[in-house]
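Dear U.,

For the methods section draft, I wanted the exact inputs and outputs in one place so we can describe them consistently. I've listed the two proteins in the order they'll appear in the manuscript figures. Please don't edit the token lines directly; just add comments below if something needs changing.

First protein:
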Amino acid sequence: MQTALLVRSPGPAPRPAQTRRIGTLLLTLVAGLAAADPARCGEAPADGRTPNIVLVYIDDMGYADVGPFGAKGYATPNIDRMAKEGRLFTDFYVVQAVCSASRAGLLTGCYNVRVGIQGALAHRAMHGISAGEMTLAELVKQKGYATACYGKWHLGHHPKFLPTSHGFDEYFGLPYSNDMWPLHPTAGKNFPDLPLFEGTRVVNPKLDDADQDQLTTQYTERAVKFIEKHKDRPFFVYLAHSMVHVPLHVSDRFRGKSERGLFGDVVMELDWSVGQVLDTLRKNGLDKHTLVIFTSDNGPWLSFGDHAGSAGPLREGKGTMFDGGCREPTIMWWPGKVPAGTVCRTPAMTIDILPTVAHLVGARLPDHPIDGRNIWPLIAGEPGAKGPHEAYYFYWDNQLQAVRMDQWKLHFPHGYPTLGGRPGGKGGLPAPYEQAKIGLALFDLEKDPGETTNVADEHPDVVAKIKVLADRMRADLGDSATGQKGSGVREPGRLEPGDLHFDWQPGRPNQTVPTPLPAPTAKAKK
């Protein structure tokens, strides 16, 4: 298996005397590469018009939190319609079941371990996404796209790490999770006020509950205006909602509307948001020229009980690499291109979105290795389409915890947080997790999506094959459980002396203007 796709810049153009001699060879080589993986070089659309891309990324939404995947106690009519007009992906994964790590994989086409982003970056973080990585926004910029990010970023809050430094023309939203503020239910003393950004400018240094109530509405209105403004040129909108991450907030328009309480109200407002986007595309005649992707960054934060979602039949939730943490409700929508009312059960992952978009718009991939592959044949429902990966790899932090190959998922021994059958908290307060352990375990996800029955003894050949793949990945990305360092891991971006930065501290008003990072003193260097 090839764990990373490497695309290199072309060499110098051949001299005229060479052209006749190598022309046929080059044509044959290019055709062969395209046939093997069309996303290597990208393919221009047959009709000459590159599609718009809208990516809706929900925060902490469980597998069973929208109608097409089994939600109860509230209605999601717009998402239901999107599913009827589009294609459900039942086995769609994120790279890691936590905020920053998940977003790093989505936007770079790489396992987050490869790009050096772990966990959930907070106000003390001095690192973020590297300028050496190519984001989805930078990818489509090659083709003249207008680009915007509205919502939660969480890949670094200092100016050099913010969206407008990584390919986005516009940004409006939170730099990290909406619970990273003094009102955090268990760690409020550790956080400064929560700021709101526009571009690299802090437009509100101290959000309150009333401000958070308006976030879903504001993100949506911005996205709609951007689409209308750029309807005559290709665009990419990354709509990364702060909800349904706790603390839950909803506008008065949806408060008290669901049988599921505040959580249901919040999901109903997110459904409204999806409807606003799709209606805007239809109204402007853009529906047949736009791919819309709906998914989530990780599963439900189960410790929050009635303020959390549901993973349905899947095991555990956020913070674990069982399917309840990393398998997300996903819908692909593009009338006339994506077959309506269909279902894809082949595994896929957010790392595959970037190379798929490259294929659709004819953009060139970065020169460094990425992990994603073009999954357009799966999205388009092409007859006989198969997944382009031999396996997907599930890290928690730097530990390789599981591998999925076809219907099989092998867990290596690891610990994980669990409620152990106890109910979650109430009213926005979490119940405590306990730590549990799992040994080497093989699950057949087609028969056992809840990862309950270990069939390793019955299928030693499958276990052996997956172990070989895992060893190959460990050589590339490492594994803290075995003490291995990966040869393919890259550094994240880091603040350097002189870089603009925000020095936010608990108990102090947030500065709104960044200042240069001073050089370390001799004492600090020691």
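Second protein (the one for the lower panel):
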Amino acid sequence: MVVETRRYLERGGVPVAGGSRAFDFATQPTTRLLLDLVTMPTGQSDTDAAVRRELAERLLPSPLVRADALAVHRLLRRLNAARAQAAEEAGEETTPIPLTMADLVSDPQTWRPDLEQAEQMGGKRARAAVMLARPLETAVRLWELGMSGSARPQERLWSLWEASGVAGEWRSRAIASDESSGWYDDQLDAVVALLRVADVWEQRNPAGSAVRFASELLAGSVPIDTISRVGVRPGGVEVLTPAQAMGRHWQVVVLAGLQDGAWPNLRLRDRILRADLLADVGAGRVAVGEDGREELIDSTRSARRAVLDDEYRLFVAALTRARCVVHAGAVRSEDAAPSVFLDLVARLAGTPRENDIVPVDQVDAPLSLSGHIADLRARAASPDNPADAQLAATLLALMAREDVLSAQPKRWLGAGGTPTTDEEYAGELTLSPSQFERALACPLRWFLTTVGADGPSNAAASLGTLIHAVAEEHPHGTPEELTEALEARIEELGYNLDTWAGRHSDRRARAIVENLASYLVGVPGRVDVEQKVEAQVEGVTIRGRMDRLEYVDEGVRVTDLKTGGNPDPYRKVDENAQLAAYQLALLASGEDVAGARIALLGTKKKPQTFDQKPLQGEALAQWRNKVREVAESARGPYFEARPSDAACAYCSFDRLCPARERGHKVVE
């Protein structure tokens, strides 16, 4: 709360004692990365190479570069595969050493030809190449400056900061007054403070180098107060915790945050290592049991009472810091209430009550950009004072012209009109089987995912991609062949085997491959892998790629490999829309379809299979009707949100979903 209060006062123009807080530059992510780039070793030893490799792995996905980690791993996998193939064709006996992220930033020629070729191909791959090339170029510039930049600390750090090119964007994000503004504000403060400390250090160490300066900061563990280094400490409001205020007194003291659940905070401490019991042993606080022996007092009620006593002591200590005036502050709203401490202060001060409740004052708009804009919007919409409303509207227009996002009417909820038209999409509609399943379950989620609003793939998706690639290469692979294929590519997943999580993920990947081998043994006949299918069904083009198309006596059976371990979603396999879409497309292509199957490989003991019956008669007609239903809803312009356990379980958009409680908003 101290940091938020300081920021709130500073943004409101209230002078704060100290002018700036102390920084531990080694723990701030941005300043730590800048200092690590300055101290980057340039030697050729294995230790120096390992340090550079670790630094490159932190640099690429960092906020200064913002490269998509998954895209970088895919690029490395593609480059290493190309190098291995070239070495094999050239008859080389030794396999080339795989490229790492350090190679990408130190030698851009390793990736530039590949991305330039991708850009020339056009389409999604070209866009992905452009999006990856930009952060890689930024990382290359930072790496070069880190290796051979200026010897002066401030100049070296400034060149690195300028090369990142994030200053303008971070400034805009810092003043946007949204959920992430505080982080950007803190990072900018830390960078400015670092440059200021570098300037003072240069003046005190004229012959000092940038590497020496950065090494000193990284070796220190005590936060640096940037004001103390210039010898002048301006006066202002002191924002302290009760413990920090001990031994000092002021004429006026404000006790802020007297909220129920915050102060007093009755949450029990030290419940994991039970330091409270250790303190009781040291203090001799014991009880006598029924057998006459001493025993520790391990009572939740007693522990909570002790916590309340500590909170009372802190409150009294804070209250007695004032010589003349005490201001007690709390908020009463729909989701917040004053604590008993506010009631205690009001009773001691003789504050009159209304219906036995301590009255609170209506407060003005917060001393922040968002608070001022909210106040101006309220004034502009008020009919009581036309002149005041006109002035507020003018000020809002001026801020909107200066690109203050929260002042632009199009970003206000309920304003700006409808962002689409009433015309539905009239072109050809193409869906993959998985998109058909998603659109049938929830059209809104399907639309948001289709336009690219979904987040990046997670580690589980990366493992699934690798397992599918192994299955494609070995449609009838033996356990030995599949294990060998996994060993050759498992490094792509980036598991750290020095950690429990890494070893657990590694064991799971190997168990899935074992289950895959067990499943393949049971399907000895002809199999087509990654077979494409495309057909018109009820005016919709269903286009997809089947993991396995297995030829059995009754015809062909499409099999979808799943690497998950939960069988519950597939128990009603006859209702699985993805498998039904594959069957519809195959039937429209003239194939004799013997059904569809899900092979679940992530189970512990052995793979489980769930078979969907061939679509015939009434079942076929029902699925055709569902295709028409999806076609109608997918053409827009409005997309319905359909909440359900299945659709909402892994949805990324519940924060903005109008059908969910946390995303529901009402425009009055």
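Candidate sentences for the figure legend, describing the second protein: The CA atoms of residues 61 and 67 lie 5 Å apart. The first strand starts at residue 250 and ends at 255.

Thanks,
Y.
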